[in-house]
């Protein structure tokens, strides 16, 4: 997956959260963001990685997002691995 494609998935996830005020409130509290901070950081790849981290923590939310956007269930995880900070360490 290209970084641009990963960012599109993450932006879709942010839009998905924004369409659910209760989930958006939880996300903003977890990130320590004000509405102004959210708008200012929305396009930063590192921030978009955090959006996907949040989504990936909740299976029900993840499934709803993928179904609403017609995405395979592994797409957010693959997008997260592409964005900064998403590398999986090789322990061998």
UniProtKB/TrEMBL annotation:
Pfam families: DUF3572
InterPro entries xrefs: DUF3572
Protein name: DUF3572 domain-containing protein
Native source species: Albimonas pacifica
């Amino acid at each position: 997956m290209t970084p641009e494609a990963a960012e599109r998935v993450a932006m879709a996830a942010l839009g998905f959260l924004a369409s659910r005020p209760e989930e958006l409130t939880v996300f903003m509290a977890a990130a320590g963001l004000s509405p102004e901070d959210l708008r200012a950081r929305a396009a930063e790849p590192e921030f978009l990685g955090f959006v996907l981290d949040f989504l990936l923590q909740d299976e029900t939310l993840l499934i709803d997002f993928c179904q609403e956007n017609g995405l395979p269930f592994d797409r957010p995880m693959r997008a997260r691995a592409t964005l900064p900070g998403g590398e999986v360490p090789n322990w061998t």
